Amino acid sequence: MPVVVAAIAVVVAVIVLVVLFKMVWRVAEPNEALIISGLGARSKPIDGVDSLGFKIVTGKGTSVLPGFQVARRLRLDSRAANLEVNCVTQQGIPVKVRGVVIYKVGDDFVSIANSARRFLEQQGSMDGAIHELFTGHLRSIIGGLTVEDLILNRERLTSETRGSAADEMSKLGLVVDSLQIQEIDDETGYITNLGRPHAARVASVARIAEAERDQEATQREQEALRENAAVIRDTEIKKAEYEGQVSQAAQQARQEVILKETRNAELEAERTEKRLESEVRKPADARAYEQVKLAEADREQRIAQAQAAATEIQLRAQREAEATRLLGEAEADAIRRKGLAEAEAIKARADALAHNTDAVIAQQLAEQWPEIVEAGARVFGNVDNMVVLNGAEGVEDMLAKALTLGGAGLGVARQLLAGMNGGGQDGGGRNGSVPSTPSLPTVPLETPEKD
Amino acid sequence: MIGKEGRVTGRIGPGLVGEVMIAVRGGVEAFYAHPVDPRDEIGVGTIIVVVEYHPPRTVYVAPAFGA
User: Fold this and answer.
1) Does B32 touch chain A (CB under 8 A)?
2) How far is CA A213 from CA A204, A227, A358, B45, in A?
3) Are A112 and A74 in contact (CB under 8 A)?
């Protein structure tokens, strides 16, 4: 148990020691300075200068005896104070300037001591004091500068700032890091007008440059277009040449084809001609020749036939002539003999007539009786309807009369004969003349000529 | 402080408060600067040497390399 108590006591003691140490030991951060004042808090004299009467600690820790010593922190950070000043420049131009001053407490012990003495309890009001201070200084600075310097000559501005504020800032233990003019409000338009000539010049230069560039661009563009056109033209020309060559070649090819086709057609025509010649003309010639030959043969045959026929006819004619002559002779002989016989007959009849006329006439009539009756009956032939009165007697009567008429005719005939006999001596010669012998017909003999 | 070299950031000359940047205590701080010879003019960018130091932040300087 005593061990545990001892341990706890040790722990408690350690804790108490730590707490005590934390209460006593203070550490200064890099951006702050510890200002320690109180019992025994005296800085060592530096370079024989009098002590400050308080101790400044930066960047390390130190013990502060609670109750006897007091430690306060002074921030060494950068601080910024905004400035806004209505003032007049060297040229008498009223401007409204807004700016900012960036400052800090100096890092050396002298500056820290000065600042600590002035601002340790009122670090918050530092900006206000600086604002007031720098407003006045800025007014005097701007009063010594022109607007052009204000805008352009930053070195002049900082230089003037240093010149006017250096001593006071040193008194306050502050360091000015930067003074910046943020904005200049120019009510009279001075700055605007200041920029105008330059702006106009720049604008004119810009316009000139733009115009020149535009011109140049247009020139280049046109050149490019021209070159393009030239290239296109060359291309077109080349293309046309090539197309011409191609079409020429095609035309040549076509011509060759046409020549070939013509040649083919000619050959075809020749072939057709030959074929026709061989198929049509030769056979036709052959047929014609055949027909001619046939015709010749036929003609010769017919000539031969005709000659044969002629010969035959001649021979036949000769034969017939001879036959006819013989026949004629025979006929003539026959006729002569017949004539002689008739003459004798006639002579005998004449004798008979002379001696017995009536008998002859009767004979003649008897011989001719049917014709006579026929002639008499012909009268009645034209009668369609004959009404014979008196019955059969009537018919007999009529026939008797007709025969009487014939008898009358007989008498007439006898008279005629008598009349003939009266002049019979003259006409007898004529009646009894013997007809002369007819001459034999002659048949012309023709020999058909050969064609 | 005396004998340190620095660089001019604000023109130093008669009637002007110049500014120099000097490396001290691991940092670089700006100090107000005046010429040792009141007639000297030291342009921006010149290397100077601190001849005199007036606390808190004023130094008197001379050009470091002759001139």
Assistant:
1) yes
2) 14, 20, 180, 42
3) yes
The shortest CB-CB distance from B57 to any of A106, A158, A163 is to A106
Q: How do strand A94-105 and strand A174-186 relate by DSSP bridges?
A: antiparallel
B17 interaction partners in chain A (CB closer than 8 Å): 159, 162-163, 166
Cα A193 to Cα A184: distance, rounded to the nearest angstrom: 14
What global pTM score does this model have? 0.49
Q: Is A168's Cβ below 8 Å from some Cβ in B?
A: no
Q: Which domains does chain A have, with CATH numbers?
A: 1-75 (no CATH), 77-188 (3.30.479.30), 357-451 (no CATH)
Contact A425, A354 (CB under 8 A): no
**A-interface mutation test, from B24, B32, B44, most A Cβ less than 10 A away:** B32
Global ipTM: 0.82
Q: What is the pLDDT of residues A69-97, one digit of tens each?
A: 888 888 888 999 998 889 888 888 888 98
Q: A21-73 pLDDT, tens per residue? A: 888 888 888 888 888 888 877 766 655 556 667 888 888 888 888 888 888 88
A363-382 as b/e, with b when 16 or more CB fall inside 10 Å? Answer: eebeeeeeebeeeeeeeeee
Q: Is A108 on the interface with B (CB under 8 A)?
A: yes
Beta bridge partners of B48: B6, B63
Residues present in chain B in total = 67
Q: CB distance B10–A173 less than 8 Å?
A: no
Sheet architecture: strand order including A174-186? A78-88, A94-105, A174-186
- Chain B interface disruption, residue of A56, A104, A108, A118, most B CBs within 10 A: A108
Residue B26 touches chain A, beta carbons under 8 Å = no
